[in-house]
Amino acid sequence: MTIIELLEGPLWTASLTIFAVLAIWRLGAILLSGRRRVEARPAGSPSAGAIRLIFGHFIPQKPFRRNGKVWFVTLAGYAFHLGLFAVLFFAAPHITFIHDNLIGLEWAALPRWGFIIAAEFAFIGLLALWIRRFVDPVVRLISRTDDHIVAGLTFLVMLSGCMALAQTVEVLRAIHLGLVEIWLIYFPFSSMMHTFTWPLSRGFTGARAGRRGTRM
Length: 216
Fold this sequence. Notes:
Elements: H1 3-8, H2 10-32, H3 46-55, H4 68-90, H5 92-101, H6 112-135, H7 137-142, H8 145-163, H9 170-186, H10 194-211
Helix pairs in contact: 2-9, 3-10, 4-6, 6-8, 8-9
């Protein structure tokens, strides 16, 4: 068995299984943890509060719209997340891999120029947010080791993926697959779980505010 066969076979299955089992376990723990029953009569709608906070904060709120730092974080965040989403699900090699190893479905891929633009946005956004963790004194103070591990590991996954794009050098492809599998295994233990938990967090906070009749 070659390195590529090992990475695409047993190691891929193992890393994907660890990712799925632990991510579901963490989400289940959150959903089943319960909360203290509130006896007070609601002053507003918890559902409306949850929906308002989930969908109403995709752009900076009015009091912060004149703050350049807020717009910097917002635009860098969108550049990274949307760019990464496009690269992850619409790069031709990824679509082929998903078809062959996951769900047996395929869809239209980005043209090469579209992939390059999406990747550049993702890199710019990630690096901007990561550098901010070093240069902004407040963000530097509250940043954890995990935040830097996540940023560094994601950067390496993206970089190795771009280098292996032509799929002609087996070593580069093997490095990319190995890094992706490490990334998948680390995912459930890290802050990357916010990919799944942010609607729950926002919804819960918004529902509490809505119940009290306040807006956030």
